[in-house]
Write a structure and sequence with these properties.
Blueprint lengths: L1 H45 L7 E10 L2 E11 L4 E12 L6 E2 L9 E2 L4 E17 L8 E17 L2 E5 L2 E5 L6 H6 L2 E3 L11 E15 L6 E18 L8 E16 L1
């Protein structure tokens, strides 16, 4: 019985060592195959052959006055040039916004003087130029992107909850109760569902130059970081805050994290 136990233990140990060695060999083989594939792509691109003809990605961006999401579809025109089609939506906040909570009532925070939520929606095209390629072992591919397109400023009315003749109600600045909007007495601000029935739209144009740092140039998966600036001009001034200058032109900086896939 003792010999059987020892024999079983030796066989199990041998199988474990064999399996571990097999896994190591398999991982090594995959790395070598991947390295060979990347080297072949690099040589092909040096000869003018496009490694990946199209890609799509999603991105999350932090803007100097807000945040946003975007989707991009890209088509390679040559080894060093691509065409990018983009859709983006963001929320822009005014620098004077300050949330105030009511300790006596369970309500949403109030931003005194806020007139509208401002959601720029953009539809545009960019040209992408390869500035620096990624080596087969490390580094990043750097591209320069330049373009622009149409912008649509969505203005969602900011409604505040006030006391009106002993009743709790919501009022807007451009309503007949504008004095209550300015002077209160306040309970709090709006929830997510308020103001959509008073949505207004202002058309405009935008331009966006940027630099993209691609950490997966010769990989099916897109993993990149982008930094740039955006200039937006609207057909009329955007009312964001009471007692503050309204603007038609907005200039902002942004940083974005991007994920997607190439084909």
């Amino acid at each position: 019985m003792k010999r059987i136990v020892i024999l079983t233990a030796l066989v199990s140990l041998s199988l474990a060592v064999f399996a571990q060695q097999t896994n190591k060999n398999t991982r090594k083989t995959r790395k070598e195959e991947k390295r060979a594939k990347v080297n072949a792509m690099i040589r092909a691109e040096e000869e003018g052959v496009i490694a990946y003809k199209k890609h799509f990605l999603f991105g999350v961006k932090l803007v100097s006055d807000g945040y946003g999401l975007f989707f991009e579809k890209g088509y390679a025109k040559s080894v060093k040039r691509s065409m990018l089609y983009q859709v983006e939506i963001s929320e822009r906040k005014h620098q004077k916004e300050e949330k105030q909570s009511n300790p006596l009532a369970s309500t949403a925070p109030l931003i005194y003087g806020k007139l509208n939520y401002f959601y720029p929606v953009k539809l545009g095209v960019q040209l992408q130029y390869l500035l620096g390629n990624k080596s087969n072992k490390n580094g990043v591919a750097i591209t320069g992107n330049i373009g622009g397109g149409l912008a649509l400023g969505l203005l969602r009315a900011y409604e505040v909850e006030v006391d009106k003749a002993g009743q709790r109600t919501y009022v807007r600045y451009d309503s007949e109760d504008s004095l209550l909007f300015v002077n209160g007495p306040y309970y709090g601000g709006p929830n997510l569902g308020r103001g959509w029935n008073h949505l207004k739209m202002t058309p405009g144009l935008y331009i966006k130059p940027a630099l993209r740092f691609d950490y997966g140039r010769f990989n099916d998966l897109v993993s990149a970081l982008e930094v740039g600036v955006t200039g937006e001009f609207y057909a009329k001034k955007i009312p964001q805050m009471l007692y503050n200058k309204q603007k038609q032109f907005f200039f902002t900086a942004f940083v974005a994290v991007e994920f997607g896939r190439r084909k």
